[in-house]
Amino acid sequence: MFSLPLKTRFALLSLVVSVLLIGIKFYAWLLTRSQAVLTDALESIINVVASAFALYSIYLASLPRDENHPYGHGKIEYLSVGFEGGLILMAGVYIFYSALQSLLHPHAIERPDWGMALLFATALVNLGTGFLLVRAGREHHSPTLVGDGQHLYLDAVSTLVSCVALLLVVFTGNVLYDSLAALVLGVFIVVNGYRMVRRSVSGLMDEADTATVQHVVAELQEHREPAWIDVHNLRVVRYGANMHIDCHVTMPYYFSLEQTHDQVHRIEELVDQEFDVQVEMFVHADPCNFSACSHCHMPDCPVRQHAFSQEIPWTLANVVKNERHQLVEVE
């Protein structure tokens, strides 16, 4: 196990913990016959299936690029999150239906003290494991680990609600608290399952990562050089832990191919050093025209047709557009 990659170790830890805890929860249900405990145990089945899929997806995501996957296999991590969210949604719907039936036909709760003790122990384990997975996922930019850890947080909350329900049954003698808790958990699980599916779709559909794009724009603006007359059509796409960036940069049209290549390389190095993940950046160099003179402060430009007027600041709003910036029209 310790020779495995770090992300794989955490995914394997999640799977092992899920398998152990599901056995404890079903034993707690056999002792108590509580609907809330059964709800929690059924939701934990999803943990096992999801953790197994997460482990496989992390293995796939670690594979190098090949002819069929020129951008690598990182997208599988978003699919893993969506798969887990879909399972949670289905479980939540069933749990909600089962809780309604229990509310209409309540039954006695047996040995709630033992049930509470076992469930509380599993909640602590899930909270600790979930914390480790989320932290590792964010450090290594793995959506799968973050999603799996957040699912364990969700499972811990479900377990604690079940404990509270059993406690209320003990002190009040009213078994309806058990069914009401299961009903609340059903709604809670459905909402969180939907959020996971939404996050998965966002990643698979390459929804804009505004924070990352803003970071790239800010770095380009802060370190902009005279030869970088204009930046536009900037796009950032994530492939699991890796990132692909492309943009258009307007440069003096009289630059040689070697000069242009050097400037492109400077831009790529500037962006690459700002991120602790693998960044693949493509810069398309556009030749300038005379409409750019008014916002170009290239020193000793031999072809300038307009005096420099003002610099156009690069912002999130204007850099992502597929159009050059200009202050005056070509005469």
Could you please describe the fold and organization of this structure?
- It is a single chain.
- By secondary structure, the protein is mainly alpha-helical.
- It folds into 2 domains: 6-204, Cation efflux protein transmembrane domain (Alpha-lytic protease prodomain-like), CATH 1.20.1510; 210-319, Alpha-Beta Plaits, CATH 3.30.70.
- It is 61% helix and 9% strand.
- It has helices at residues 6-32, 35-61, 76-104, 112-139, 143-172, 176-204, 210-222, 257-272, 316-319; strands at 230-239, 242-251, 279-287.
- The protein has a 3-stranded mixed beta sheet, covered by helices on one side.
- Strand 2, helix 8 (257-272) and strand 3 form a beta-alpha-beta unit.
- Its main location: membrane.
Keywords:
mainly alpha; 9 helices; 3-stranded mixed beta sheet; Alpha-lytic protease prodomain-like; single chain; 331 residues; 61% helix; Alpha-Beta Plaits
Provide the CATH topology of the largest domain: Alpha-lytic protease prodomain-like
Which class of the largest domain in CATH terms?
Mainly Alpha
Radius of gyration: 27 Å
Main pleated-sheet profile? 3 strands, mixed
* Helical residue percent band: 55-70%
- Shape field: elongated
| Class per helix and strand makeup | mainly alpha
Low-confidence stretches: none
Order of helices and strands: HHHHHHHEEHEH
